């Protein structure tokens, strides 16, 4: 593997090592996205390699720092949005317990039953209807169960 001036490792010609009796995969796969760490390495490299007689424009440096800050805030916002959506799905699933739900079965027929319980083990809540676990996003109708 080779390393460029800013510390990014270029992939080796062969990602698998075949030396010895064991075969091992590459230690790390290359990342296709820029994160704050890569951004800071680029900025530090720019500062190290700048011409002392013509230093980097302070406005350009402030603009780059602002871009980094905006990128980090957008990443935080995306994470928060994903967590909020997950919480909304959990609340919706919990609220349909005891209600009559309708969903399309594996054979294509419409199935109706009472939601007995909810499991939050996976990424999408599973609602137990008549002994069958149904993903929340497959439920097409909800009515209050008659007593």
UniProtKB/TrEMBL annotation:
One of its GO terms (biological process) is bacterial-type flagellum organization. Keywords: Bacterial flagellum biogenesis, Cell projection, Cilium, Flagellum. It comes from Lacisediminihabitans profunda. It comes from the Bacteria. This is Flagellar hook capping protein. It holds the Pfam family FlgD. Belongs to the FlgD family. InterPro entries: FlgD.
């Amino acid at each position: 593997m080779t390393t460029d001036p800013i510390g990014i490792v270029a992939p080796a010609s062969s990602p698998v090592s075949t030396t010895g009796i064991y075969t091992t995969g590459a230690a790390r796969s290359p990342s296709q996205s820029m994160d704050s760490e890569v951004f800071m390495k680029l900025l530090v490299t720019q500062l190290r390699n700048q011409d002392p007689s013509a230093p980097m424009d302070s406005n350009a440096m402030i603009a780059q720092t602002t871009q980094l800050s905006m990128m980090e805030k957008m990443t935080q916002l995306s994470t928060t949005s994903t967590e909020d959506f997950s919480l909304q799905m959990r609340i919706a699933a919990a609220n349909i317990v005891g209600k009559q739900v309708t969903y399309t079965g594996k054979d294509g027929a419409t199935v109706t039953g009472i939601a007995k319980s909810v499991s939050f083990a996976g990424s999408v809540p599973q609602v137990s209807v008549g002994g069958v676990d149904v993903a929340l996003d497959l439920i097409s109708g909800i009515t209050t169960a008659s007593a």
